[in-house]
Specification:
Layout: H1 2-16, E1 19-21, E2 28-30, H2 35-52, H3 62-81, E3 91-95, E4 103-106, E5 110-114, H4 115-120, H5 125-140, H6 143-164, H7 170-188, H8 193-209, H9 216-228, H10 235-239, H11 244-262
Parallel strand pairs: 3-5
Antiparallel strand pairs: 1-2, 4-5
Helix pairs in contact: 1-6, 2-7, 3-5, 5-8, 5-9, 6-7, 8-11, 9-11
Length: 290
């Protein structure tokens, strides 16, 4: 009981000092894990994913170039929202898994999209832009940091109990767990409804500003629901829950986004690495966007 009370006291104190405003929307966030720490952990986790999927990563294909072109335009708009993210090492890979309907992003702009979601749904560039815009929005809005903070708070409680009982170093154990947490929250666990709504709102605007039709957003989700129905389960739907309400919300945003889409201003692009060599644990350099 004493250990539990002490752990609870520390967690309460941490919670009270860990409030921050979300970028872009200004929403209040619980931020026990800094964005810098989340990016560091995500970079390590991303390397592990690349190693695991090394035989499936598209290199030099037309689909890879297509995704890179779309993503580069979206990132250019993201940087306008948060200029400091121009220093991020934005990366995207296309993973060749024809049966996987999935895409994800980690802190610092580490992203992946699977061939299955593009090919099975026969996605247009506008629809790919909605997927990648949504994922970029998660990174832009510090959602990995926010979700890692919740996971870290749970871990702190366990580590405090362990430390009080004399069973190991809290600091060293948490450091070892950081990349695992980043992988879990970045790829496997569902975002909160609030985060999903936030990413929808930011993502559709990023796409419109980058020159992609906002009508593609509700169209994409209609395809996702129709493709999966009651017969199968989409990985992306498991981490990005869809439904009529979501489609309605995106449809309501379309008229607000159309002026941005119809704007005739130049659509800039931003360097996005497809594969970047970063030590022995990474894949060899395939190509780097100049």
């Amino acid at each position: 009981m004493i250990v539990q009370r002490l752990a609870a006291g520390v967690l309460v104190a941490a919670a009270l000092s860990a409030c921050a405003n979300a970028p872009v929307t200004g929403r209040n966030q619980f931020m026990l894990v800094s964005e810098g720490d989340a990016i560091s952990a995500s970079t390590q986790a991303y390397s592990e994913v690349l190693k695991k999927e090394s035989g499936k990563i598209e290199q030099g294909s037309s689909l890879e170039r297509r995704v890179e072109t779309i993503t580069g335009k979206l990132v250019a708009q993201a940087v306008k929202f948060r200029p400091e993210t121009a220093q991020w090492k934005w990366e995207v890979v296309v993973i060749d898994e024809p049966e996987t309907l999935n895409a994800w992003a980690m802190a610092g702009g580490k992203m992946a999209i699977y061939t299955g979601i593009i090919q099975k749904l026969q996605l247009s560039d506008d629809e790919i832009a909605q997927i990648m815009g949504h994922e970029i929005a998660h990174a832009l809005a510090k959602h990995t940091s926010e979700r890692m903070s919740v996971a870290a708070a749970q871990q702190i409680g366990l580590q405090l109990a362990s430390a009080f009982l004399g069973t190991g170093s809290m600091t060293s154990q948490m450091a070892l767990q950081a990349a695992a947490i980043a992988t879990t929250v970045g790829v496997q666990l569902p975002n909160s409804r609030q985060q999903e709504s936030e990413a929808d709102r930011i993502g559709i605007e990023l796409a419109a500003r980058a020159g992609y039709d906002p009508n593609a957003a509700p169209a994409l989700w209609k395809k996702m629901v129709a493709a999966t129905g009651q017969k199968g389960k989409s990985d992306w739907l498991s981490t990005h829950p869809a439904g009529e309400r979501r489609i309605e919300s995106l449809t309501a945003l379309v008229p607000k986004m159309m002026p941005l889409y119809e704007d005739r201003s130049p659509r800039p692009t931003h360097p996005v690495a497809l594969l970047r060599e970063a030590g022995p644990d990474r894949l060899a350099l395939a190509r780097q966007h100049d």
